[in-house]
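Check these lines:
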Amino acid sequence: MRPTEPPRLPGWARNMTTGTKATGTAGAGRAPDPAAALTGTWTSPWPGTGAGTAGVTGHTGGTGRTGIGPLPAPRTGGAGTPPPAEVLAHLAGRHSEGLRLARLDRWAEAVEVQRAVVTERERLLGPDHPDTLDSRYEVGFALSRTGRPGEALREFARTAAGRERVLGPEHPDTLAARQETAYVLGQLGRHVEAHRVYTAVLATRERVMGTDHPDTLRCRHNLAFSLGRLGRPEESYAMACEVAAARARVLGPDHPDTLVTRYEVGWALGQLGRWAEALRTYHEVAAARARVLGPDHPDAFAARYEAGICLGRLGRSTEALELYRDLVADRTRAQGPAHADTLRARHGLGVNLGRLGRWEEALAEARDVYAIRARVLGADHPDTLVSRREVAVGLGWLGRWGDALAVYRDVAQARQRVLGADHPDALASRQDEAHCLEQLGRSAEAAELHRQVAALRRTRATRGNRPPPG
């Protein structure tokens, strides 16, 4: 029987969307953690309120729409008539199809669908109509998941600017788009700029929404992540602990948002070299997620993956190898052999084979994972390039430095092309190349590469003083 009254939630919890993803940009071996979404009564629109017409998407970023405020009128034709309702309904259906593709991790297809919807909505409704901006937001989100952060940044910056013009700079939808801008700045390795955006958005959220609003806490979570990427692990750890405590108080200790921040506490502990504490934290998060979400939930798998990293760091590679074998089997059964998370677990397995000195097996695993990632994700996807680099690592350990050099150069060129010459991953690849040249006795070439990398790092440091976009 339907209740006659809405659930008793605080006023600020009504009509909420999932907001922005409560994670940051992880390092190459780190599993993404999509558990930041608000769920159940926290995000479901109450029947009869007329709210929630924008919907809640299947990813943790949402559309960034709160359903608050009036919508601008659509463009009209020469006769002063609005676009036909059936045309708008068709576009809404295609937008929903793009979200469905995203939920299935078919991100490249989602990009194409949403781009086509943006083009049509812009023509019919105008570039600043909320529906147009919703689809543009989804284009950015899908691009950020296909290893194209530069393009994603442009889409989010345009969305944020449009929402600011229409809704104002402090509107929740504007803030959601700005927060995603910071997320992709982090993906681009531009952590100083990302930190500035997160700081500005957090100040506005605290003033407008309050310190305990879940969207404010999500932004503080992202800021904690950003501090870690800036090499400020103590501050990152302290802020993550504060957010975890606040989320436990506001949402409950087993709420997915609380667990995602505890997951981040584990990462910060690892950055501080406190791997035993990090391992214990990830075990606790994995157990809670298995209990609340189910043992085959991707987020439960993600915490198990991080526990494997901790075991490796603690020199317990035999245990890590066993963990990753079990995780590969579970993810293959639950998610499929070519799923990105399954391949990430296989990558962890290969790394630990190498740590145990089983380099022929490690090289074979790296080559297999690389081939599947290239086919599924594309040759230039960051995960594909991580596996390509792992092939070079194996070749080097087997003394095949000439072969390794060719692979390292391919990876360096791809990262420069996709991420930019001064991205940290591109710079790391140039350093790999220099190390390989040193092993081959080509010290003059290696020294020149080191000089180039130093110059690019200086350029990067200078750029960090520029104001961020949006």
Q: What stands out?
A: The CA atoms of residues 254 and 288 lie 7 Å apart.
